[in-house]
Structure formats: structure tokens, C-alpha cells
Amino acid sequence: MYRSRPGATIRSVAEDLGVNSETLRSWIRLDEERCSGSRVATGAAPAVPGPSEGETAALRRRVRELEEERDILRKAAKYFVGETRWCASEFVADHQRRHGVKRLCQVIGIARSSYYHWRASAPDLAARAADDDRLAAPFRTIHRDSAGTYGVLRITAELRAAGHVVNHKRVAWVMRGIGLAGLRLRRRHRTTLGDPAGVKAPDLLGRDFTAEAPNTRYVGDITYLPIADGTFCYLATVMDLCSRRLVGWAIADHMRTELVIDALAAAERTRGSLAGAPAEPPG
User: Fold this and answer.
1) Of 153, 167, 1, 141, which Cα lies nearest the Cα of 71?
2) Cα dihedral sign for 186, 187, 191, 194?
3) Contact 31, 21 (CB under 8 A)
4) Residues 179-211: pLDDT tens digits?
């Protein structure tokens, strides 16, 4: 292969075959010694014996196998792009005449029994796919009428009410295939556990959340921020009711009193002083 491609380098040929460049260089050197012969001049030291015919034939056979595997994998790549359920078996069926079922299954890593099972059940799979396509239309209608909120269970109930005999697993399969999903509400995280025996803080604002001038009335709140690892951070804020400006905030991994004090201290640094300004505490 190296000699049949003018201008090709050992490195490029080795990359095509999937072998180390030094290994290919050794193969070429051994083949050249075999072809040129090992003629020893009279009185000269004996030449190092080259590889036997059997070794050379084995090396060439291995090169052919690697070239065949490369060609098979290149052809298989476009089948796996679609990510269909039986794409590997479809590839074997389309190329078995040239490479054989055993060789194809060996290269792409599937059991021959899986391929033969797929071939035997192909008519049933085709009929099921056609039935899925038939169900897709009412699925889309119900999903659209619910403003995209209905999921598997509600769509299953609607179909059964309309007279369709269908399982929720089948509904989930078809919905996934056509790209439909219901609306999932985020689970609320309870951040406050009230103490029934505790003394409630007085309402200094009297539920009047307006202010005539800046730095006269403030409100505060605490919210939680979900993190990717499943834990939460907590954010405490202080807002001026006149300007609606967020004058102070603090963030921590707890909801202790220190979190609110840090937010008030940040607001005091921003405004210089909070003396005399009533504030509605976070609830």
C-alpha cells in the first residue's frame, strides 16, 4: 500500500491502517530485505536472516484485515449518525454480501444472534413503526391543545377516553420518538420551618410597600439557588422601596441569622446608614 501510493509517507499510511508508524517501517524494511535477497560476498560476514515466507504472508494478511476493518467502520459511521434503534443490524444487512455477516458483526461489535433476531422480526418492527406513525397525529393534537403541558400519563388518559387501547409505556416511546414532552414543574424547596411557639416579628410597614423618598423604607427577602450537585445556596437581599434598588445582598450555604446580618451590613455600606429606616424582614 505504501509503494502503490506515490508521495505517501509512512506516517500517513500508518494512520490509515491504524498501526504504529515504527511497526509499519519495520514491515517495509523486512519486505525490502526479502525482495532484494541476502547475497553474501565471498569472505563477508553472513547477513542477518530475513523473515520467512510464512511470516511475510501473515503480515500481509494482517494488513488486509486492517484495511478491511477501516473500510467497514467508515461505511458504518453514517448509519450510527441517525441513532436508530437497529442501525447496526441495518448496516450488516446492507453490506453482508461483500463482507459477510460474521466479519461485519465482529468489527462493529454486535452478536450475530442479535442481527438474526432483528432480521426475523423485521416485518413486525415495520408494522409497529407504522402503527407508531399512526398514533403520532393524535399525540400531537392532544399535546398542542394542552399548550404543551400534558405528559405521558395525561396523554394516555386522553387516548383511552377517546377509545384507543394503548399502554403508557407505548405512549412514552412514541412521544420520545417525535420529540414531545410534558411540562415538568420544578419541585419547591421548603426553606422556612416556622416555630408555632415563637414570637412573630412586628409588621413595621403595615403592608404598605411604598416610599416617598430614598433611604426611608426597606424590605428584605431570602431565596434559594439550586446548584448542579443537588445542594443549595441561599441569597439574602435588601431593597429600597423608593428607588427599588438592591442596596445590599449576601450569599451563603445556610439560612442562619448571620446571612441576614451580612446583607444588612452590605446595605449600610452602600447607603452610609440605615438608622431610623423601618424594614420588612424576610419571611
Assistant:
1) 1
2) positive
3) no
4) 888 887 666 666 566 677 777 777 777 787 888
pLDDT in tens, 216-231: 888 888 888 888 887 8
Of 50-54, 90-94, 190-194, highest mean pLDDT = 90-94
Integer Rg of the chain from CA: 37
Q: What's the rounded Cα separation, in Å, for the pair 191 and 181?
A: 30
Burial of residue 246 (number of CB atoms within 10 Å: 0-12, 13-18, 19+): middle
The domain segmentation of the chain, as residue ranges, is 10-33+51-120, 123-178, 218-280
How far CA 3 is from CA of 7, 20, 47, 54, 202, in Å, comes to: 9, 17, 25, 21, 92
The whole-angstrom distance between residue 116's C-alpha and the CA centroid of its chain comes to 31
Grid cell at residue 56? 511475510
Burial class (CB in 10 A: 0-12, 13-18, 19+), 201: exposed
3-state secondary structure the chain: CCCCCCCCCHHHHHHHHCCCHHHHHHHHHHHHHHHHCCCCCCCCCCCCCCCCHHHHHHHHHHHHHHHHHHHHHHHHHHHHHCCCCCHHHHHHHHHHHHHCHHHHHHHHCCCHHHHHHHHHCHHHHHHHHHHHHHHHHHHHHHHHHCCCCCCHHHHHHHHHHCCCCCCHHHHHHHHHHHCCCCCCCCCCCCCCCCCCCCCCCCCCCCCCCCCCCCCCCEEEEEEEEECCCCCEEEEEEEEECCCCCEEEEEEECCCCHHHHHHHHHHHHHHHCCCCCCCEECCC
**How far is the C-alpha of 42 from the C-alpha of 62, rounded, in Å?**
37
